[in-house]
From TrEMBL:
GO molecular function: thymidine kinase activity
Binding site for Zn(2+): C145, C147, C182, H185
Subunit structure: Homotetramer.
Entry EC no(s): 2.7.1.21
Source species: Ruegeria spongiae
Domain of life: Bacteria
Protein name in the entry: Thymidine kinase
Enzyme class: transferase
Pfam family name, one: TK
Origin organism lineage: Bacteria, Pseudomonadati, Pseudomonadota, Alphaproteobacteria, Rhodobacterales
Keyword Cell cycle: no
HAMAP family reported for this sequence: Thymidine_kinase
Gene that produces this protein: tdk
Coiled-coil stretches: none
Amino acid sequence: MAKLYFNYSTMNAGKSTVLLQASHNYRERGMQTYLMTAAIDGRAGRGRIASRIGISADADTFLTSDDVYAMIARQLDQTPLACVFVDEAQFLTPDQVWQLARAVDDLGVPVLAYGLRVDFQGKLFPGSATLLALADEMREVRTICKCGSKATMVIRQDAQGQAITEGAQVQIGGNETYVSLCRRHWREMMGDHMAETP
């Protein structure tokens, strides 16, 4: 039975690497996959999913105005799909997450979504919040903080490495902009002096 999966983490945990490897595993066995990514994130080039370790693949892009159910249905009309992979899933709208769930339920195709859980202020992205509510299964892709503990938060930093505490929820960037931290170090960087009390 097809399911909706949400694979979440902080920045630089290897979500795209895991996605690309999983898609490769299907294709290596002669099964077709459909890759999608947010049009807003063009760091690897438009319509490209890329990993920091150097692997990449072409993908269809979605805008917040797109019907992702219709995109999947059109692809299924052209070729049988073993699985749909969605990168940068935090940029989905809540309606688009429901469309993914509908594709799972009505088209019978598994959908694996990969994205950030929270933004630099510790708030859920709307797409991620809806995925947390609707996903049949959730998996955390883990990375570590500078202290060696599991990183669960991310800060946005300026050119001097200082944490930015205000701003738009979405700002595209990589290692030069974002740093993954454990909650304690995130609180320290964000100016929560209570972080030092046991």
